Task: structure prediction
Amino acid sequence: MSFVTTKDNVEIFYKDWGPKDARPIMFHHGWPLSSDDWDAQMLFFLQQGFRVVAHDRRGHGRSGQVSEGHDMDHYAADAFAVVEALDLRNVVHIGHSTGGGEVARYVAKHGQPSGRAAKAVLVSAVPPLMLRTEANPEGLPIEIFDGFRVALATNRAQFFRDVPTGPFYGFNREGISPQEGVIQNWWRQGMMGSAKAHYEGIKAFSETDQTEDLKSITIPTLVLHGEDDQIVPIADSALKSVELLANGTLKTYPGFSHGMLTVNAEVLNADLLAFAER
Result:
Protein backbone atom coordinates (compact mmCIF):
# COMPACT_ATOMS: atom_id res chain seq x y z
CA MET A 1 0.00 0.00 0.00
CA SER A 2 1.08 3.60 -0.64
CA PHE A 3 1.46 6.19 2.12
CA VAL A 4 2.59 9.78 2.56
CA THR A 5 3.94 10.88 5.94
CA THR A 6 2.77 14.34 7.01
CA LYS A 7 4.82 16.98 8.83
CA ASP A 8 3.25 15.84 12.12
CA ASN A 9 4.21 12.23 11.37
CA VAL A 10 0.83 10.82 10.31
CA GLU A 11 0.72 8.14 7.62
CA ILE A 12 -1.89 8.99 4.98
CA PHE A 13 -2.94 6.17 2.66
CA TYR A 14 -3.56 7.07 -0.98
CA LYS A 15 -4.43 5.56 -4.35
CA ASP A 16 -2.83 6.88 -7.54
CA TRP A 17 -4.13 5.29 -10.73
CA GLY A 18 -3.57 6.09 -14.38
CA PRO A 19 -0.85 7.73 -16.51
CA LYS A 20 1.36 10.05 -14.48
CA ASP A 21 1.34 12.63 -17.25
CA ALA A 22 -2.48 12.70 -17.50
CA ARG A 23 -4.69 15.46 -16.06
CA PRO A 24 -5.12 14.69 -12.34
CA ILE A 25 -8.41 14.54 -10.45
CA MET A 26 -8.21 14.23 -6.69
CA PHE A 27 -11.15 12.94 -4.65
CA HIS A 28 -11.92 13.81 -1.01
CA HIS A 29 -14.30 11.46 0.79
CA GLY A 30 -17.06 12.06 3.32
CA TRP A 31 -17.44 11.14 6.99
CA PRO A 32 -16.86 8.43 8.25
CA LEU A 33 -15.84 6.70 5.02
CA SER A 34 -12.66 6.21 3.00
CA SER A 35 -11.30 6.64 -0.51
CA ASP A 36 -13.17 3.43 -1.40
CA ASP A 37 -16.34 5.50 -1.55
CA TRP A 38 -15.06 6.93 -4.85
CA ASP A 39 -14.85 3.59 -6.70
CA ALA A 40 -17.54 4.50 -9.23
CA GLN A 41 -15.88 7.83 -10.02
CA MET A 42 -12.27 6.67 -10.04
CA LEU A 43 -12.93 3.80 -12.45
CA PHE A 44 -15.02 6.06 -14.68
CA PHE A 45 -12.44 8.85 -14.91
CA LEU A 46 -9.60 6.38 -15.34
CA GLN A 47 -11.41 5.09 -18.41
CA GLN A 48 -11.67 8.67 -19.68
CA GLY A 49 -7.89 9.03 -19.61
CA PHE A 50 -7.45 10.94 -16.36
CA ARG A 51 -5.01 10.30 -13.54
CA VAL A 52 -7.13 9.67 -10.43
CA VAL A 53 -5.96 10.14 -6.86
CA ALA A 54 -7.80 9.60 -3.57
CA HIS A 55 -6.64 9.38 0.02
CA ASP A 56 -8.05 8.20 3.33
CA ARG A 57 -8.44 11.10 5.76
CA ARG A 58 -6.41 10.78 8.97
CA GLY A 59 -8.16 8.38 11.34
CA HIS A 60 -10.23 6.97 8.48
CA GLY A 61 -9.77 3.87 6.34
CA ARG A 62 -6.14 2.75 6.15
CA SER A 63 -4.56 6.00 7.32
CA GLY A 64 -2.99 6.34 10.76
CA GLN A 65 -5.41 6.22 13.69
CA VAL A 66 -3.78 9.14 15.47
CA SER A 67 -5.20 10.88 18.51
CA GLU A 68 -4.95 14.49 17.32
CA GLY A 69 -5.72 16.69 14.33
CA HIS A 70 -9.30 15.79 13.50
CA ASP A 71 -10.25 19.21 12.14
CA MET A 72 -10.52 20.96 8.78
CA ASP A 73 -7.08 22.58 9.00
CA HIS A 74 -5.34 19.23 9.43
CA TYR A 75 -7.59 17.57 6.83
CA ALA A 76 -6.57 20.20 4.28
CA ALA A 77 -2.89 20.06 5.22
CA ASP A 78 -2.90 16.27 4.88
CA ALA A 79 -4.40 16.55 1.41
CA PHE A 80 -1.67 19.04 0.49
CA ALA A 81 0.96 16.58 1.71
CA VAL A 82 -0.36 14.06 -0.82
CA VAL A 83 -0.43 16.67 -3.60
CA GLU A 84 3.14 17.74 -2.90
CA ALA A 85 4.45 14.18 -2.59
CA LEU A 86 2.95 13.25 -5.97
CA ASP A 87 3.77 16.67 -7.45
CA LEU A 88 0.21 17.08 -8.73
CA ARG A 89 -0.48 20.21 -10.78
CA ASN A 90 -3.50 21.65 -12.57
CA VAL A 91 -5.67 19.49 -10.33
CA VAL A 92 -9.46 19.17 -10.27
CA HIS A 93 -10.48 18.60 -6.63
CA ILE A 94 -13.82 16.86 -5.98
CA GLY A 95 -15.14 16.60 -2.44
CA HIS A 96 -18.25 14.93 -1.05
CA SER A 97 -19.95 16.02 2.19
CA THR A 98 -17.19 16.54 4.79
CA GLY A 99 -14.78 16.10 1.90
CA GLY A 100 -16.39 19.16 0.33
CA GLY A 101 -15.44 21.11 3.43
CA GLU A 102 -11.94 19.70 3.12
CA VAL A 103 -11.77 20.85 -0.51
CA ALA A 104 -12.94 24.36 0.39
CA ARG A 105 -10.32 24.71 3.13
CA TYR A 106 -7.65 23.06 0.95
CA VAL A 107 -8.23 25.34 -2.05
CA ALA A 108 -8.36 28.46 0.10
CA LYS A 109 -5.27 27.69 2.20
CA HIS A 110 -3.09 25.51 -0.03
CA GLY A 111 -4.40 24.89 -3.55
CA GLN A 112 -4.68 28.47 -4.77
CA PRO A 113 -1.61 29.84 -2.94
CA SER A 114 0.54 27.05 -4.40
CA GLY A 115 -0.97 27.42 -7.87
CA ARG A 116 -1.70 23.68 -8.02
CA ALA A 117 -5.54 23.75 -7.95
CA ALA A 118 -7.36 24.37 -11.24
CA LYS A 119 -11.01 23.59 -10.44
CA ALA A 120 -13.12 22.42 -7.52
CA VAL A 121 -16.36 20.52 -7.11
CA LEU A 122 -18.43 20.52 -3.91
CA VAL A 123 -20.87 17.60 -3.89
CA SER A 124 -23.52 17.39 -1.14
CA ALA A 125 -21.00 19.44 0.80
CA VAL A 126 -21.16 20.80 4.35
CA PRO A 127 -20.03 24.43 3.78
CA PRO A 128 -20.60 27.11 4.68
CA LEU A 129 -21.84 25.98 8.15
CA MET A 130 -24.18 23.19 9.24
CA LEU A 131 -24.74 24.27 12.86
CA ARG A 132 -27.53 26.65 13.83
CA THR A 133 -26.16 29.85 15.33
CA GLU A 134 -27.40 33.40 15.74
CA ALA A 135 -25.69 34.27 12.46
CA ASN A 136 -26.90 31.04 10.81
CA PRO A 137 -30.48 30.51 12.02
CA GLU A 138 -31.28 28.12 9.15
CA GLY A 139 -28.72 25.59 10.41
CA LEU A 140 -29.36 22.38 12.30
CA PRO A 141 -29.60 22.48 16.12
CA ILE A 142 -26.67 21.25 18.19
CA GLU A 143 -28.90 18.53 19.63
CA ILE A 144 -28.80 16.67 16.32
CA PHE A 145 -25.01 16.49 16.35
CA ASP A 146 -24.98 15.65 20.06
CA GLY A 147 -27.26 12.76 19.16
CA PHE A 148 -24.73 11.58 16.59
CA ARG A 149 -22.04 11.62 19.28
CA VAL A 150 -24.15 9.64 21.72
CA ALA A 151 -25.08 7.06 19.09
CA LEU A 152 -21.45 6.69 17.99
CA ALA A 153 -20.11 6.35 21.52
CA THR A 154 -22.87 3.95 22.58
CA ASN A 155 -22.90 1.55 19.63
CA ARG A 156 -20.90 2.71 16.64
CA ALA A 157 -21.52 -0.50 14.70
CA GLN A 158 -25.30 -0.09 14.92
CA PHE A 159 -25.16 3.65 14.19
CA PHE A 160 -23.10 2.94 11.09
CA ARG A 161 -25.75 0.47 10.00
CA ASP A 162 -28.69 2.80 10.62
CA VAL A 163 -27.30 5.77 8.64
CA PRO A 164 -26.91 4.05 5.24
CA THR A 165 -30.02 1.94 5.73
CA GLY A 166 -32.06 5.10 6.26
CA PRO A 167 -31.42 8.71 5.21
CA PHE A 168 -27.96 8.66 3.61
CA TYR A 169 -29.09 7.08 0.33
CA GLY A 170 -32.77 7.86 0.72
CA PHE A 171 -33.58 4.20 1.32
CA ASN A 172 -36.14 5.37 3.90
CA ARG A 173 -38.22 7.03 1.17
CA GLU A 174 -41.32 5.33 -0.18
CA GLY A 175 -40.69 3.51 -3.44
CA ILE A 176 -36.89 3.40 -3.02
CA SER A 177 -35.49 -0.13 -2.79
CA PRO A 178 -32.53 -0.51 -0.40
CA GLN A 179 -29.33 -1.85 -1.94
CA GLU A 180 -27.83 -4.24 0.60
CA GLY A 181 -24.36 -4.19 -0.94
CA VAL A 182 -24.23 -0.40 -0.77
CA ILE A 183 -25.32 -0.48 2.88
CA GLN A 184 -22.74 -3.10 3.81
CA ASN A 185 -19.98 -1.23 1.98
CA TRP A 186 -20.79 1.98 3.89
CA TRP A 187 -20.63 0.01 7.16
CA ARG A 188 -17.36 -1.66 6.14
CA GLN A 189 -15.69 1.64 5.34
CA GLY A 190 -16.89 3.28 8.53
CA MET A 191 -15.79 0.48 10.82
CA MET A 192 -12.28 0.50 9.31
CA GLY A 193 -11.65 3.89 10.87
CA SER A 194 -11.01 5.20 14.36
CA ALA A 195 -13.91 5.85 16.73
CA LYS A 196 -12.05 8.87 18.11
CA ALA A 197 -11.51 10.36 14.66
CA HIS A 198 -15.17 9.81 13.82
CA TYR A 199 -16.35 11.27 17.13
CA GLU A 200 -14.23 14.42 16.78
CA GLY A 201 -15.03 14.64 13.09
CA ILE A 202 -18.65 15.43 13.96
CA LYS A 203 -17.52 18.76 15.39
CA ALA A 204 -15.31 19.37 12.36
CA PHE A 205 -18.07 18.91 9.80
CA SER A 206 -20.85 20.61 11.79
CA GLU A 207 -19.20 23.55 13.54
CA THR A 208 -16.53 24.75 11.10
CA ASP A 209 -17.63 28.05 9.56
CA GLN A 210 -16.21 28.08 6.02
CA THR A 211 -17.74 31.33 4.84
CA GLU A 212 -14.33 32.96 4.43
CA ASP A 213 -12.94 29.91 2.65
CA LEU A 214 -15.68 30.12 0.06
CA LYS A 215 -15.29 33.88 -0.38
CA SER A 216 -11.57 33.48 -1.08
CA ILE A 217 -11.95 30.79 -3.76
CA THR A 218 -11.59 32.21 -7.27
CA ILE A 219 -11.02 29.06 -9.37
CA PRO A 220 -14.08 27.65 -11.20
CA THR A 221 -16.17 25.76 -8.67
CA LEU A 222 -19.13 23.50 -9.36
CA VAL A 223 -21.68 22.96 -6.58
CA LEU A 224 -23.82 19.82 -6.91
CA HIS A 225 -26.56 18.90 -4.45
CA GLY A 226 -29.54 16.58 -4.22
CA GLU A 227 -32.81 18.33 -3.47
CA ASP A 228 -33.86 15.48 -1.13
CA ASP A 229 -30.60 15.44 0.83
CA GLN A 230 -31.61 14.45 4.38
CA ILE A 231 -28.07 14.67 5.79
CA VAL A 232 -26.91 18.10 4.56
CA PRO A 233 -30.06 20.10 3.73
CA ILE A 234 -29.62 21.99 0.49
CA ALA A 235 -31.05 25.32 1.72
CA ASP A 236 -28.30 25.81 4.29
CA SER A 237 -25.44 24.48 2.20
CA ALA A 238 -25.34 24.54 -1.60
CA LEU A 239 -27.75 27.44 -2.01
CA LYS A 240 -25.64 29.57 0.32
CA SER A 241 -22.26 28.35 -0.96
CA VAL A 242 -22.86 29.32 -4.56
CA GLU A 243 -23.68 32.87 -3.47
CA LEU A 244 -20.34 33.14 -1.65
CA LEU A 245 -18.19 31.76 -4.47
CA ALA A 246 -16.70 34.26 -6.93
CA ASN A 247 -16.77 31.75 -9.79
CA GLY A 248 -19.39 29.22 -8.72
CA THR A 249 -22.01 27.25 -10.66
CA LEU A 250 -24.90 25.39 -9.03
CA LYS A 251 -26.70 22.29 -10.26
CA THR A 252 -29.35 20.52 -8.19
CA TYR A 253 -31.08 17.17 -8.64
CA PRO A 254 -34.76 16.68 -7.79
CA GLY A 255 -35.30 13.67 -5.54
CA PHE A 256 -31.61 12.80 -5.22
CA SER A 257 -30.14 11.84 -1.84
CA HIS A 258 -26.95 12.68 0.03
CA GLY A 259 -25.36 9.52 -1.38
CA MET A 260 -26.21 10.32 -5.00
CA LEU A 261 -22.61 9.80 -6.15
CA THR A 262 -23.11 6.09 -5.50
CA VAL A 263 -26.74 5.39 -6.29
CA ASN A 264 -26.93 7.88 -9.21
CA ALA A 265 -23.34 7.53 -10.40
CA GLU A 266 -24.12 7.59 -14.13
CA VAL A 267 -25.84 10.99 -13.87
CA LEU A 268 -23.21 12.52 -11.58
CA ASN A 269 -20.24 11.16 -13.49
CA ALA A 270 -21.46 12.71 -16.74
CA ASP A 271 -21.81 16.12 -15.10
CA LEU A 272 -18.43 15.86 -13.39
CA LEU A 273 -16.77 14.92 -16.68
CA ALA A 274 -18.36 17.85 -18.51
CA PHE A 275 -17.02 20.23 -15.86
CA ALA A 276 -13.54 18.68 -15.78
CA GLU A 277 -13.22 18.92 -19.56
CA ARG A 278 -14.63 22.43 -19.81
Observations:
- The chain has one domain: 2-277.
- The CA atoms of residues 30 and 98 lie 5 Å apart.
